[in-house]
Amino acid sequence: MDYFGKKWFLQRTFWIVLAIMYCLTGYSQVEHNYPVSPQSTDCDSLDISSVSLAKAIESIENAKFRFQKQFKISRSYGVMNARFYSCNGETGFLIMKVDKKDFIYIKVPKSVWNTLITSSDINAFYASEIKQTYNVIND
Fold this sequence. Notes:
139 residues; alpha+beta; single chain; 4 helices
């Protein structure tokens, strides 16, 4: 191989190795098929049962969780926003603002959150699947 052939080969090899390293360094999310304990979190020690709703929401929002997501809808009635916080990636706190009132639902499965955010009628899903199903903290 002449000088230019070696240079071309080395450049291409470098980019191929770099692409492989990028794929192998954990840039994709890993799903575990076994229970994983909370890592770098402090959410498993939250005690919100004996405090006001505002203090409970503040405690949840200030804690470190393994998984948290939220959405907001611009409207003046029904479900206005929701936030989901999970320490173990399976169940968690669901904080919802419905008709301008806050509610905290406890031990809500992540699958319910996923269905809620993909539902074509969030208000109907909330009324039928969340409101009467899960333990709630409200004022």
